[in-house]
From TrEMBL:
CDD domains: OAT_like. PANTHER family: AMINOTRANSFERASE, AMINOTRANSFERASE CLASS-III. This is Aminotransferase. The keyword Cell inner membrane does not apply. PROSITE patterns: AA_TRANSFER_CLASS_3 (PS00600). The keyword Transferase applies. It comes from Ferroacidibacillus organovorans. Pfam families: Aminotran_3.
Length: 466
């Protein structure tokens, strides 16, 4: 641990109180993704400052994951809290069947950041943004007299949300077990996973078969049955799977050939995580629909957006009962959330955050390269300022590191005061990818500390493992 710190909440600091919080948590909390029998106590966070979290016992941890890939401007951005408060006392709520000032402001800004005219549907979460996009895609085709187009193609290993169509689009079987059958009409194609190429290709023989595969699926399924493709610029939560150059462009080309809409999920990659405003802007593609959440408010309040190119929006302008988008969201575009989002984008512009992110990317990539020689590391991958470190017990046959040993790596990082993520989320590889997505406000020294902790944890666990 970095050390005990005063968290300013005196009563929380006593050992007894800390125990009480854990007991109370155990009594009433239903944690996300955690088995109840977990032997590990949850980390109960009492406060946070910049990139550092303080638990109820006063221990400090550098958050190398920005919460859940979202706290891009760090934990103590007063201007965001002020924007929320000011809006709350000015006008706390109104539904977006009508309108309000901050919703207009953020919609204009998103459209501007995307380049080209867009209309923006606001909601609360990445899941909802994708649900909205998928409904729009299917209805778009129906309104144009192509109601046979309902299928959606996504990728194995992708994550697009926790419910309904967004979960159906998700390509991680362990997330779906027990909840199927889900929304019908969802197909999956193999991911661009160069370390374990699903097409058995090597670096020099790769012909982007993973992109061409979309063409085959659309042809075999019948182009006139396919509504949309949904994909992230790179698969993030599925283990940071970064395609070779030309992949996204090729998928766009194939979508155009078959009259299929391209939905790009920027829930993680958006808002400078990639070094650009949006992840797809690193490539030469224009999506039809872009979804976003998380970093849009730098994690301070829930907000999500589905941005639709005007050519598509215009198809919904009919006056009939079923020609508009019959889609409602009580809290979507909450005024305070919109105010925080508008302020987030303003701060990012004012501070030229892209320049800082690109400097951080460079430093991170140097440290990532060093990791290649560290025990247990099979592959390192990065996109912008996020990274995945795939761990294996045997480099020659790429045996994924056993889940319990993965757990020990994370525990050792935590003991060294650093919280890293663990992803992959699929069989047969398991969650054997360490993930990093630090806030953009980390200092160079803090970034070094994150990598020092990972290196040291890997050496320790490798020694235990022998
Ligand atoms: N899309 C991607 C790429 C995500 O990573 C996530 C969540 O992690 C989602 C969608 C769903 O977002 P939410 O958890 O806000 O519903």
């Amino acid at each position: 641990m970095i050390g005990k710190e005063c968290c300013g909440l005196a009563e929380l600091l006593s050992e007894n109180k800390a125990l009480t919080w854990i007991e109370r948590d155990r009594e009433h909390m239903w944690h996300h993704m955690q088995p109840f029998a977990s032997s590990q106590n949850p980390m109960i966070v009492a406060r946070a400052e910049r990139a550092t979290l303080y638990d109820v016992e006063g221990n400090a941890y550098l958050d190398a994951m920005s919460g859940l890939w979202c706290m891009n401007l760090g934990y103590s951005e007063r201007a965001l809290a002020d924007a929320a408060y000011e809006q709350m006392v000015t006008m706390p709520y109104y539904p977006l069947s009508q309108s309000h000032l901050k919703a207009i402001e953020i919609s204009e800004k998103i459209s501007d950041w995307l380049g080209g005219k867009h209309h923006i549907f606001l909601s609360n979460s990445g899941t909802e943004a994708n649900e909205t996009a998928l409904k729009i895609a299917r209805q778009y085709h129906a309104l144009r007299g192509e109601g046979t187009r309902y299928k959606v193609i996504s990728r194995y290993r992708a994550y697009h949300g926790n419910a309904g169509s967004a979960l159906a689009a998700t390509g991680q079987s362990i997330r779906k077990q027990n909840y199927e059958p889900l929304t019908p009409g969802f197909l999956h194609v193999p991911p661009p996973y160069c370390y374990r190429c699903p097409f058995g290709q090597k670096e020099d023989s790769c012909q982007l078969e993973c992109a061409s595969y979309y063409d085959q699926v659309m042809t075999w399924e019948g182009s006139d049955t396919v509504a949309a493709v949904i994909l992230e610029p790179v698969i993030t939560g599925g283990g940071v799977l970064v395609p070779k150059p030309g992949y996204l462009e090729k998928v766009r080309e194939i979508c155009d050939k078959h009259g299929v809409l391209m939905i790009v999920d920027e829930v993680i990659c958006g808002f400078y995580r990639s070094g650009e405003r949006f992840g797809h802007q690193n490539f030469h593609v224009k999506p039809d629909i872009v979804t976003m959440a998380k970093g849009i408010t730098s994690g301070y309040l829930p907000l999500a957006a589905t941005a639709v190119r005007d050519e598509i929006f215009n198809v919904f302008k009919g006056q009939g009962e079923f020609t508009h988008l019959r889609h409602l969201n009580t809290f979507g575009g909450n005024p305070s959330a919109c105010a925080v989002a508008a302020k987030t984008l303003e701060l990012m512009e004012e501070r030229q955050i892209g320049t800082r992110v690109r400097a951080l990317m460079e430093r991170m990539n140097e440290r990532l390269e060093r990791l290649r020689d560290v025990p247990l590391v099979g592959d390192v991958r990065s996109f912008g300022f996020l990274a995945g470190v795939e761990l294996v017990s045997n480099r020659a046959d790429k045996t994924p590191l056993d889940p319990t040993v993965m757990g020990r790596v994370l525990a050792h990082c935590k003991q060294r005061g650093v919280i890293v993520g663990r992803n992959g989320d699929t069989v047969p590889e398991g969650n054997n990818v360490l993930t990093l997505s630090p806030p953009f406000i980390v200092t160079d020294e803090e970034l070094d500390r994150i990598f020092d902790a990972i290196e040291s944890a890997l050496h320790t666990v490798a020694d235990e493992y022998r």
